[in-house]
């Protein structure tokens, strides 16, 4: 594996002397960075995967705490739905 293959797509490789090649590399890196930042569904998927993994680890280490957290979250969501439904019905 060469040095350029180990770099992330959003990094411009060092040592480019030709200005045209350098500009192309900078443009390629900028477009890759925009794609990474702008791909909201992929970012949401990665964040939800990380959160689910953390929740599984927490549930394995502390089952009673996980049950309590689940009940608490359900109560908060239920209360919010109730408040919204009540506000709409008025």
Q: Your description of this structure?
A:
With 90 residues, this protein is an all-alpha fold. It is 81% helix and 0% strand. The chain has helices spanning 3-6, 19-38, 40-61, 63-89. Helix 3 packs across helix 4.
Q: How many strands appear in the DSSP assignment?
A: 0
Unreliable sequence segments: none
* Helix/strand/pairing category: mainly alpha
Helix content: over 70%
- Tally the structural domains: 2
**Relative strand content:** under 5%
State the shape: elongated
Instruction: From the alpha carbons, calculate the radius of gyration and give it in angstroms.
Output: 23 Å
Question: What sequence of helices (H) and strands (E) makes up the elements?
Answer: HHHH
End-to-end gap: 66 Å
Number of helices: 4
Give a short overview.
By secondary structure, the chain is mostly helical. The chain contains four helices and no strands. It has two domains: 3-38, no CATH class; 41-89.
Secondary structure: elements and pairs:
Blueprint: H1 3-6, H2 19-38, H3 40-61, H4 63-89
Helix pairs in contact: 3-4
Which key phrases capture this entry?
single chain; 90 residues; mainly alpha; 2 domains; elongated
């Amino acid at each position: 594996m060469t040095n350029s293959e180990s770099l992330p797509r959003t990094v411009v490789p060092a040592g480019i002397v030709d200005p045209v090649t350098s500009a192309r590399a900078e443009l390629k890196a900028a477009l890759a960075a925009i794609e990474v930042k702008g791909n909201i569904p992929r970012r949401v998927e990665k964040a939800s995967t990380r959160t689910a993994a953390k929740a599984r680890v927490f549930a394995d280490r502390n089952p009673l705490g996980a049950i309590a957290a689940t009940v608490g979250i359900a109560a908060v969501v239920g209360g919010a739905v109730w408040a919204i439904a009540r506000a709409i019905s008025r």
